[in-house]
Amino acid sequence: MHPSSSHRPVARLFPTACDIFPLILYLFSVLQVLILIYRQHRQGGAAAG
C-alpha cells in the first residue's frame, strides 16, 4: 500500500466537513425556532393556568 492512500481519508474528511457545516447551521436555526415556539407555548400555558 502506498502512504498516499492513508492520507486519502483525511483529504476526504474536508469535503464532508464542508457539507456538514451548512447542515449544522440549518439544524441550529431549526433548534432556535423550536425553542422559541416551546418558550412561547410555556408562557401561554403559564398565562392560561
Structure description:
The protein is mostly helical and 49 residues long. 94% of the residues lie in helices and 0% in strands. It contains one helix and no strands. The longest helix is centred in the middle third of the chain and has 46 residues. The radius of gyration is 21 Å and the shape is rod-shaped.
Offer a concise description of the structure:
The chain crosses the membrane at residues 20-38. Keywords: Membrane, Transmembrane, Transmembrane helix. The chain has one helix at 3-48.
Spans where pLDDT lies below 50 across 5 or more residues: none
**Helix count?**
1
Task: Tell me what portion of residues adopts beta-strand conformation.
Answer: under 5%
Largest sheet: none
Strand element count? 0
Keywords: Membrane, Transmembrane, Transmembrane helix
Transmembrane segments: 20-38
